[in-house]
Every structure is written in structure tokens, then in C-alpha cells.
Amino acid sequence: MEERAAWVHGAWHRDWHDGRFGWWWNVGPSWYFYTQPVYPYPQPPPPSPFPQAPPGRWSKVPTAIIVIACFYLLGGAMTMLYVFLPFPGFIAGFILSPVASRVLYLTMGLASLALGAGLLRLDNRARLGVYALMALGLVNVAVMLTPWGHARFLEYNTQLYERMHLGGMAAMTSNLYSGPILIFSLLFGVVLSGVVVWILQHHRAAFVRDQAAG
Questions:
Q1: Which of 25, 29, 172, 197 has the maximal Cβ count within 10 Å?
Q2: What is the residue-wise DSSP string for 66-129?
């Protein structure tokens, strides 16, 4: 009778537990997985707690986190290629020298690779690192919306195409990066960054839980 009383006074939770997202019936220290809730409570005897076997490495990582991590890994690998190309660097309105540009691309490439790998390991430091990188991106956006920052970006764009031996395209792309098109592009980037931050914040429990288990 005591076991039944404890069972009927359990509670439904729709959350991550043991590396799996779904509906969980919580009774004291025990959690039982269900594909959907049954009200007022599921009928006893209860099923065996899930999982019966230790979950695999990837079963702990939410799909959305895997997608974000892959983008960081791919972006980091592509950024590393810029270290070997004579392209100028641009940050917060400043056009960097060739040496400083290579240092910037190397740093950003390694950071992106580290963040991608960290997200796949559900390392909470990687989640916080993404927030920091997003904050840096917002600083760039704020600078580029100023007249000085916009002018510097157009100058950077001209130098970039000259280094690519496509100087004739600089004027054409400068028109594209003027006015509403630039604002739309920047706002789109802000919205996309916001979606990434929301996903990481939504799944923060997966990071904290995994880190505590480690």
C-alpha cells in the first residue's frame, strides 16, 4: 500500500533525464520514461526505469546541439584556411595588418573548433564560450551601424576584393552593403545568433547534468 501511495503521488515532468528528452513520471528518487503522459497517473506496476543500459555517448547530446556544434566545427575549419590566404582581417571597425589578420583567423578558427568539440561533449564552458562569441558579434554589429564603422567596412570590402584580384566587384558589392540591405543582413545575423543562444539556454540542463555526472 505504501508503494502504491507513493506511486499515485508522483509527478509528470517533460524534461531531460538520463540523456533522454520526454515525459518522465517521477516517484521519489526514481524516474520512469513514457512516450506520453497518462492522467491522473500511469497504472502500476511501473515499467523499469529508463535506461536499462548505460546510454551511448551521442544519446546524451540533443540533436539541436549537435547541429550547432557541427556548424562551429565546419566554420572553424574554414576559418583556419584564411590563415594561409592574404586576406585582411576586420574586427570592431579596424582593418588589421597581414600578421594581425593571420593571428585573428588562427585564434577564431581554433576557438570555433574548441567550441564545437566542447558542445559535443556537453561541456558547459563551451556553451558559455558561445555566448561570449555572440557578444563579440553584437559589438561588431553595433560598430558597423555607425557611419564610421560602415565606412571602415566598405574599405575592408574593397581591400578584400583587391587581394582576390576582383577589384571590379568592390564597387558593386559596396552598393549591396549600403542602406537597407546592410541593416537587413546585420539584423538577420542578430536573429540567427539569438536562436542559437535560445537553443543553448533551453538545453542548459543537459550541460549541467552531464557535467555533474562527470
A1: 25
A2: HHHHHHHHHHHHHHHHHTTS-PPPEETTEEPPHHHHHHHHHHHHHHHHHHHHHHHTT-HHHHHH
At 118, the amino acid letter reads: G
d(CA 194, CA 33): 31
Distance CA 46, CA 4 (A): 10
Per the document, the length of the chain is 214
- DSSP for 137-172, written as a single string: HHHHHHHHTSHHHHHHHHHHHHHHHHHTT-THHHHH
Q: What is the pLDDT of residues 13-59, one digit of tens each?
A: 887 776 677 888 888 778 888 888 888 888 765 555 554 444 445 45
CB-count exposure of residue 25 (10 Å: 0-12, 13-18, 19+): buried
Q: Which amino acid is at 77?
A: A
Burial (CB count <10 Å: 0-12, 13-18, 19+), residue 130? buried
Q: Which of 62, 57, 21, 13 is nearest to 207 (CA)?
A: 62
Q: CA Rg, the chain, in Å?
A: 24
Residue 63 three-state SS = helix
* Amino acid letter, residue 22: G
